[in-house]
Amino acid sequence: MLSEKDLLARVQTLTVTRLRVWVAQGWIKPADATMQAYSEADLARAALICNLEDELGFAEEDVPVLLNLIDQIHGLRAELRGLLAALDELPDDVRSTVRMRITTHRESGPER
Amino acid sequence: MAEDLYSVLGVAKTASAADITKAYRKLAKKLHPDLNPGDKAAEEKFKQVSHAYSILNDEGKRGQYDRGEIDASGQERPQQRYYREYAGGEDGARYRSSRGFEDIGEFSDLFGDMFGRGGAAGRGGARFSMRGQDAQYRLEVDFLDAVRGTKTRITLPDGETLDVTIPPGVSDGQVLRLKGKGMPGIGEGGPGDALVEISVRPHAVFKREGNDIVVELPITFDEAVLGGKIEVPTIGGRVFATVPPGANTGQILRLKGRGIKAKSGAGDQLVRLSVVLPEKIDDDLKSFVEKWRESHGYDPRRKLKEQA
To answer: How many CA within 13 A on the CB side of residue A40?
Structure first.
């Protein structure tokens, strides 16, 4: 676990104010909220927000939009990975049926 | 890394610091690894772009590079660890959002079941919830009830009853989904659905072909020759159909709109005629036909002989 100080030391452009605002807005959720302790993922996320604002020049109001999309992508990726792992455990003939069906659905477009 | 740093960013050697930043941001927004998780090529390109920017954005280093005092490789930046490396793991789970596929649940029972769990990801510490299982039933329906639609009641093994509305025109094998009438859910999960597979009992007279109803109609020898109005059963009651003079076995009369009323329009009733001789051929008929044959011979097998 990392303290607030550790985070500030390791992310160049991070300040106490910025970090606390982000936590208050829910952009960063300390791994241990009661102890204000952070994980490596929180650190990387803080670095990402700094990077989006400072280097890429996104406005502060754009950041929640981006985070929301990034979180959705990772949510989807995690579910997709789970689904694929589950498919991997199925017998070969079932897998090839699924593959065939996916192709059919892709070709027939998104309608139900 | 031997490539020219200015061309990596797509700017001229004379570009201002502001132009360089602008070009960098435009490329970086497109290529940033956290905005393209899973895209290796974008990551490689992003590294080159950030590297070029780290030199060209620093007035001192840019001068050195322009004067040839340092080459394009400059100094490697310490490896940056991107958020995406954590986002997929256990540590990143609390940030992952399932809002992106709430709608997918409507498309697929599989996904619906999974995401009905109360948030597969993202909502930390959620209580265990699960949508109830779907319950499957089979229901036999009379042909005419299926055609006209009806209401019926299924008694379940546990003594409960379930009211089922059979829509008009339901077809054999069709599955009706009764929302929320399946097994109860756990926690905040709603109940499952009842899936009722309809099996339509065949009818002695009516057959179904799509939305058309097909009926075999026996007619007499004299009706076939002379034509006339003949009573025909339809799914909506008896009607009179006009048989044209000289009608033959196999000929089909179409009664418009007397088939199954579907959303896509009403089907027709098809009446297939079948000429039937009297059970007993009496002397009158026999002597008439003998006489008739002498002067009115015809050969219905002429084509047959030509072709085989």
So the answer is: 11
